[in-house]
Amino acid sequence: MLISGHKNVGYLTGTLGIEGLALITRSGSFLITDPRFSQEAQSAAGFIPEITKSPLATMRKITRSLKIRRLGFEPNNISYAGFNKLKKGLKGITLIPVSGRVEKLRAVKTDKEIACIKRAAKITLKSLTQVKRFIRPGISEKDLAARLDMALRHNGAEGNAFPTIVASGPNTAKPHARPTARKFRLNDIIMIDIGANYMGYSSDLTRVFFLGRISANLKRAYKIVKEAQEKAIRAIRPGVRASKIDGLTRNYIESKGFGKYFTHSLGHGVGLDVHESPRFSGKDKTPLLKGMVLTVEPGIYLPGEGGVRVEDMVLVTKRGCVVLTR
Amino acid sequence: MLISGHKNVGYLTGTLGIEGLALITRSGSFLITDPRFSQEAQSAAGFIPEITKSPLATMRKITRSLKIRRLGFEPNNISYAGFNKLKKGLKGITLIPVSGRVEKLRAVKTDKEIACIKRAAKITLKSLTQVKRFIRPGISEKDLAARLDMALRHNGAEGNAFPTIVASGPNTAKPHARPTARKFRLNDIIMIDIGANYMGYSSDLTRVFFLGRISANLKRAYKIVKEAQEKAIRAIRPGVRASKIDGLTRNYIESKGFGKYFTHSLGHGVGLDVHESPRFSGKDKTPLLKGMVLTVEPGIYLPGEGGVRVEDMVLVTKRGCVVLTR
């Protein structure tokens, strides 16, 4: 099987950050990369490093010498153009699309991975706590985002897991707002969605703040979102399908009359990617397993008025789950 | 034509950060996105927003009503799996791979884009100048990288253009090193490769520092790299092929006996992506055009000993080029 997904190659070979391909065969596993990463490739335990400026020629050489006739590939992690090059370069070999194998392994975290994710979550919470006092009228969304990002780095993050979202007032009605020059005003609602990267692992956290008085409508929306999140967290345990958790929060929000304002899925796995398998969405029937780490983030967005979202990360345990972002 | 590349969609529609597809037809252009981005989609000048949870169904509806029979797509910006879904969902339409059209537009920068890139470069230089004084024995690669990233953010960057490289001693022999806990020592060579993101645009800069005495070998390598860079910069002007610039520096470094230690291409375009078209590489025959912004970054890496790279960004002008990172 040929592994071409960047994070998948890093996960299997233990060499995050290098650009290359992993070729897994019955007779041995190869890490094919270019001279920029020759030193890193030497340290990939269990992999034979192949340093080349022509990965296709190297693959041809290996597959010929091992008499490989059938080769799996990752249909979601290779471009249409890349696939055609592969097909042409490996003439005579049957290429078989095999989806999500490494993603499935990655979904269940090892103790070491959980420790990194917990650390990333802790850095994020600490940074938010430190910077919270700057949430006052006159400071802009961009300013607060910069302070948050500096705090993340200061507290030990290697970087952001994703670009920090700071939205205020009506901008909070955009679930994925980019920080603007808008300055906070009295009675604004403020939404912060932030995550740290620690040793390659991500965290993801959303909190809303009310700067003064709260409109009755948004207060109600906040209460419903919080209750929906609690319902989800209580229902998460091994064996339950991811889609079921999404469904029960969606039903709850719908029963309160806000269904059409909950415009995204309930959550997603978090690990080397900030969005990874499985997803809390109606389409993902994956049964939850002990060791999975996911976000639970219901939201209600009222166009022109504002939005609320509460997002925490949970770790699926033997009998239920624990919240990593209290 | 269907545009699926994330940055390409952002470039054409002027809505950076949103996830969606641009469908360009003779009868109008559509921005197809999901409800998370419904508000941003309204602001895409010249595009009809299509908010949907099923982009494929929406595309089917549009292409049918416009009687579209042939549709271009971006073979490098769609996965093999994505292409197959498209083929199935748009039965009866001939899909035609069309490479690099938007990338070609993006290669030549507008004045507004150049202003953003210049600002990103300025932020980067300022941050490096401020943090330089911490380059002394005892500070770790990771510590210095954190200080640099905080300075970028403090000086107005929206974030890093890419993860900052700080390498010291033998680690500098890895062109793409990740910062480690290694502490700087007297007589170390230090390599810093850093870039800012400003309004979505990237900068990219590499400098090396010598912390004390310099080995004769590395001093010689540095001199050759610097001379090779100067040769390239003098040769850059509209009409010259990108490959030619790569070739002449490569020949020069080879003539000095270090050819096999220059393990990467000479440079790359910089814009919305930190690596974009064109490339200063033997394979890219693109003739340079006024308004292109590229890096010029020859390097020599001696395994076990250390490496040197000097990287600047240039803007191709009417008769030559200007260095943006003096």
Write the SSE topology:
Two copies of one chain form a homodimer.
Chain A: E1 2-3, H1 6-13, E2 20-25, E3 28-33, H2 38-42, E4 48-51, H3 55-65, E5 70-73, H4 80-89, E6 94-97, H5 101-107, H6 111-131, H7 141-154, E7 159-160, E8 165-168, E9 188-194, E10 196-198, E11 201-202, E12 205-211, H8 216-235, H9 242-255, E13 267-269, E14 276-280, E15 293-296, E16 299-302, E17 306-309, E18 312-316, E19 321-323
Helix pairs in contact in A: 6-7, 8-9
The gist of it:
By secondary structure, chain A is α+β, with helices and mostly antiparallel strands. The first copy, chain A, has helices at residues 6-13, 38-42, 55-65, 80-89, 101-107, 111-131, 141-154, 216-235, 242-255, and strands at 2-3, 20-25, 28-33, 48-51, 70-73, 94-97, 159-160, 165-168, 188-194, 196-198, 201-202, 205-211, 267-269, 276-280, 293-296, 299-302, 306-309, 312-316, 321-323.
